[in-house]
Amino acid sequence: MTGHTDTAPILRVALPTPLRRLFDYRSPGAPGPERIEPGMRVRVPFGRRRLIGVVMETATRTDLPEEKLRPVLERLDGRPILDRAMLALLSWAAGYYHHPPGEVLAAALPKALRLGATLEAMEERWYLTPAGRDAWAQGEPRRAPRQRQLLAELAAHEACAGAAENRGGWRDAARALEVRGWIVSARVPLARAPVAGADRDPAHGPRTGPELNDEQRQATQRICQSLDAYGAFVLQGITGSGKTEVYLRVTEQALALGRSALVLVPEIGLTPQLVGRFRERFRVGMSVLHSALTDQERLTAWRDAFSGRARIVLGTRSAVFAPVPRLGVIIVDEEHDPSFKQHEGGFRYSARDLALVRARRAAVPVVLGSATPAVETLHNVEAGRYARLRLTRRAVQAAPPRIALIDLRANAHHAGLSTPAVQAMERHLGAGGQVLVFLNRRGYAPTLLCTACGWVAPCSDCDARLTVHLGARRLRCHHCGADSPLPERCPQCGFAVKAVGQGTERIEETLAAMFPGLPCVRLDRDVVRRRTDMEEAMRRIASGEGRILVGTQMVTKGHDFPNVTLVVVLNADQGLFSTDFRAPERLAQTIVQVAGRAGRGERPGEVLIQTEFPAHPLLTGLLAEGYEGFARTALSERREASWPPFSRLAAVRDSAATAETALAFLTEARSLAGRLQGVRLLGPVPAAMAKRAGRHHAQLLVESADRGRLHRFLDAWLPQVESLPSARRVRWALDVDPMELF
Ligand code: ADP
Ligand code: ZN
Ligand code: ZN
User: Fold this and answer.
1) 498: CA distance to ligand 2 center in Å?
2) Cα–Cα distance measured from residue 618 to residue 504, given in angstroms and rounded to the nearest whole number
3) Cis bond leading into 645, ω under 30°?
4) Sequence-ordered alpha helix ranges (H) in 672-706
5) pLDDT per residue over 484-495, tens digit each?
6) Residue range 534-588, pLDDT digits in tens
7) How many CA atoms are closer than 13 Å to the CA of 704, on its beta-carbon side?
8) CA of 463 to the centre of ligand 3 (A)
9) pTM
10) Which of 413, 447, 485, 686 is least surrounded by CB atoms within 10 angstroms?
11) Does residue 665 contact residue 726 with C-beta atoms inside 8 Å?
């Protein structure tokens, strides 16, 4: 090996610290089997602590003085647990989101691995020693039948799994034998139990699905033509148009090539049907990753993905970082869903956007499916960056629902329900249909009011009113969780109080009185707390026992309600006049998604939208031209106002005990910015709801027409912001490409 000078390299390690950098360490040994490679975990000294980190890269030189460069203490993995592609993706994400690499890593690795769990699942096994074999041959131990039996087992099989045999006192027997030196135990890699689905005969292909219609076939073909190259495809089709069937066919082809599929969904709890469809169709191992897993379950799911035993990896947001050897395709279902953007904590990434980056780097296609693609996504279609594949017809039933507006100012209404809406309900219920009433507000009423003195129950920790929960007899804050008994009388003047306005709980009560004998099923976070609650609600709806459904946002996702023939949107106006430029888009998506729940069976559906602003261009545009008409209007409005995607945004948000402190930090940060080139700073301003959970929130926006400029500015500016003394008096975070502006 001439010319090969493999001196011990510098290892650049990502550590769980809030610092925006990697840390240099010396490799402990000479090259050889103990060699440390990027992607392996190492234990290192850090100050007086020891930390576990991941080697992100190696280098030949360091800026650290020789005496400061400390050696790695220990290598935790015999092979990299993150491959080169994943390391590159994580580094890219740390750069793009300007976030500490150690915290980015925390999003990618299960906690158990970050704490040092082995890559391989291990188990304890017992082995017979030579002394033990002799003892066994001599019929020992005579008076301990359990020990004797264990020796027999070990003599017959080479080893015995500790965990599996740990019932009814086996462990005590084993310990006794161990003390006598007749058996020893060792931790060895677990003889792997097959992952879900993998036990089925792999020689059998997937179960056959329905014959595709022309649009589905074309979409599948287009995507599969580029199975070994990057391509971004927007699969746009209303609910029920057969998008999932296309995902299944594309996955099938990827599997047939020996590749694996990564499927991202907004929320597992709300989309059990999708998981079920994949499980049902394929006889390969599948790994499901979501936020409700325990640490151990997450570790197991991750190991299944890592080892390649799971050929389909399906999960929510953070699954975009799941290991998928021989990745063949990435599918993002409901790509417009805001939950793909992490909007809390430190590392605020968009799983949808990272899926595109990952697909490009892996040279595989990425499929973005939705009935209502994000306005940004449609802009990318127009710009030719994504290819659009349309599914215009429902797979099962042809007629799209009829949508109409009800003018709340021109029609009598009672308890939130207008006369035309009630009449339509009578008609549909009379004809045997089910009715879905949508209201994006849970609880009984949003306000508790004293009619004598005008007192309104406020949250003491938020700039918000408390919501009345009548059944529970509680007043609750939907922003901070504050919870107190429902007062009978005004605490200020002692007069009687009154619940004002409508929540789902009250609508349910009103409808029960209006349609006696027709059972109501409510779907919101107050009634659906666990997955089984949802299953029970779905059962009552599917069986036809529930005739009227009342629900929040929860009903716009995932589920089919095939016998619903009428959808009533009680109040469309919340999204029309918001300070957030994305609010109209959310509203349009919600209306289209909820409308898509209607008439999925044989009968055509009808959708009624109650509003006080029937002439609002958003609503009329949506009605006249559908979602795409709306999206065109929205894009031209954003172009006018220079909002994304016609500009790039980053938000610096902070919170503090007082409004002054929160604003002061951002004001100082702003003053550090110096001369701005192609970048604008907007604010700081208090958040629209400034006080939340007792803290005062504010934000400063950074805007630029050019992505590169924005990021160069952030690179130079953030280290200074970070070192401001006032930074220590607030909690702050950077949000690149924010989805919500408060
Ligand atoms: P989406 O994901 O767009 O909501 P699905 O793929 O779930 O649509 O399809 C809706 C329903 O139609 C499902 O019950 C599915 O099994 C069925 N379906 C989809 N494609 C076809 C087809 N080509 N022929 C018959 N039924 C189909
Ligand atoms: Zn009062
Ligand atoms: Zn509150």
Assistant:
1) 10
2) 25
3) yes
4) none
5) 999 999 999 999
6) 888 888 888 888 999 999 988 877 677 878 889 999 988 877 877 788 888 988 9
7) 16
8) 7
9) 0.87
10) 485
11) yes
